[in-house]
């Protein structure tokens, strides 16, 4: 791992190195979203340094990590709908400011959940609209280790190849849990256009509400336990969330990019539920023509000739997760085995 670190590093709260400078941090999500005061730049690597992704949340049920999430303002966390079997808040807690799941976390804050809002059009068969909002019981105070991420505004464009980072405490390979002390992991993956992603994952599986990312060679991806967590891209000084970890055919397999809920499609839905302290929506722009707009494969509708378009239609798998001593189960993998594999075999 190579780290390029600019500025002082506060690993722990000490009198010389306080976590917050009282009075110096503004509290609105709009004015301070997407900033990482401790780590301004990271190159490669796997263990995420403390404070590098200060919006990362661990969603826990009865003390077990189940899913990731992202802090979007003082009292709301965004995650995936498939992490929840209902909108009951019973047993759920959200942990913020955490570097690891097992070691000492001096900057950590844990909150109970007051409300869970699942997207009304979430489809557990296709994973379409796999997005949820959690309202915390108490607003959290922003620190160097706890801050909101900016969200991709509805007019954002993420061309094929857009550099992105995904973070989480999920498995490090299919079937391999993150080892002790379960330090937050980060991985860099490029966006893979919806047309190509449909061709790879199966025509009809990737909707306009999804965004894909991954490397064709495999080896870099999100996995079980990362679900609900953020995929972000940097634009200038801020980090903008483009995706929510949703599903994939296995993890890090060659030619099978991970699939994420496309955050920019949900600006009005999110704003309809958050009346004060609106999240910071920022337009992400990509320069040039999207190479994906001319990508094609058998069964895929012909590319739209004028505007670089995003793609396709419906159908495919969801997923769920936990860690530590908690038992894992993945609806996603079960779904793939029962539905997708037989379908694949029929095609062959
Ligand atoms: C899961 O089972 C899961 N490779 C999440 C993400 C991905 C695959 C599986 C993406 O929760």
Automatic annotation (TrEMBL):
<dbReference type="InterPro" id="IPR009003">
    <property type="entry name" value="Peptidase_S1_PA"/>
</dbReference>
<dbReference type="InterPro" id="IPR001314">
    <property type="entry name" value="Peptidase_S1A"/>
</dbReference>
<keyword id="KW-1015">Disulfide bond</keyword>
<protein>
    <recommendedName>
        <fullName>Peptidase S1 domain-containing protein</fullName>
    </recommendedName>
</protein>
<feature type="domain" description="Peptidase S1">
    <location>
        <begin position="42"/>
        <end position="275"/>
    </location>
</feature>
<dbReference type="InterPro" id="IPR001254">
    <property type="entry name" value="Trypsin_dom"/>
</dbReference>
<dbReference type="GO" id="GO:0004252">
    <property type="term" value="F:serine-type endopeptidase activity"/>
</dbReference>
<dbReference type="InterPro" id="IPR043504">
    <property type="entry name" value="Peptidase_S1_PA_chymotrypsin"/>
</dbReference>
<dbReference type="InterPro" id="IPR033116">
    <property type="entry name" value="TRYPSIN_SER"/>
</dbReference>
<dbReference type="GO" id="GO:0006508">
    <property type="term" value="P:proteolysis"/>
</dbReference>
<dbReference type="Pfam" id="PF00089">
    <property type="entry name" value="Trypsin"/>
</dbReference>
<dbReference type="InterPro" id="IPR018114">
    <property type="entry name" value="TRYPSIN_HIS"/>
</dbReference>
<keyword id="KW-0720">Serine protease</keyword>
<keyword id="KW-0645">Protease</keyword>
<keyword id="KW-0378">Hydrolase</keyword>
